[in-house]
């Protein structure tokens, strides 16, 4: 029959176990990226009933500053969509050890000097970027963070937590999930969606995300862990916020 010509075997579409795992990783990642975009960002906190729930419980401590709860939600949602769900897929569906996907701390200490060196290299670039209007008007994400006090520290807490999810998802789940099938090319594939989540940020940062994705992906594979990348990513983000706050003369509110 003519339809026999289009059987998978005749088209060279036979799937191996590696192909199956790669498909699961890619499809899961795609669904989670969409879910996080709609339900994981601070905006969802304000358009849902969460802001009212948080206000009832935190207004006594934070006063009228309950909007910072959106950034705490951002961090917690990142842990769920980008860490907990991928871990569940790895352990329950793929039947693999989380350590095979970069979820490991042991042995990473010896790689920290490399990441510290990258931070030192980045520092002059951060100082330069903090002088640009596009960055001055963008950071920190939460405007009231420049007032210091609880506003700043709670915002930075949520902001920092979400980097655990960023690194676990992109440099862990995606990078290691694709590397088994594609090797280092998997790092390139991971860098595409990683760069796309930066498209709402200043253009220099979006282009820098390409370099960061490739470099951090390679280093994660080399160290067999995404954990050191969390320290670097969060450190750079905190430094940028502090530099911008210093530029506008409000650093005294923080310290």
Molecular structure report:
The chain is mostly helical and 255 residues long. The chain has one domain (16-253). The chain is 69% helix and 0% strand. It has ten helices and no strands. The chain has helices at residues 17-39, 42-47, 50-62, 69-93, 112-129, 133-136, 149-182, 185-196, 203-223, 227-247. α1 runs antiparallel to α7, α4 (69-93) runs parallel beside α7 and α7 (149-182) crosses α9 (203-223). The protein is globular, with a radius of gyration of 21 Å. The N and C termini lie far apart (78 Å). Residues 1-7 have low confidence and may be disordered.
Order of helices and strands: HHHHHHHHHH
Q: Which geometry do the CA atoms define?
A: globular
Oligomer: single chain
Number of domains: 1
Helix segment tally: 10
Distance between the termini: 78 Å
Structural class by sheet pairing and helices:
mainly alpha
Percent in helix: 55-70%
Give the rounded overall mean pLDDT.
92
Number of strands: 0
Extract low-pLDDT stretches: 1-7
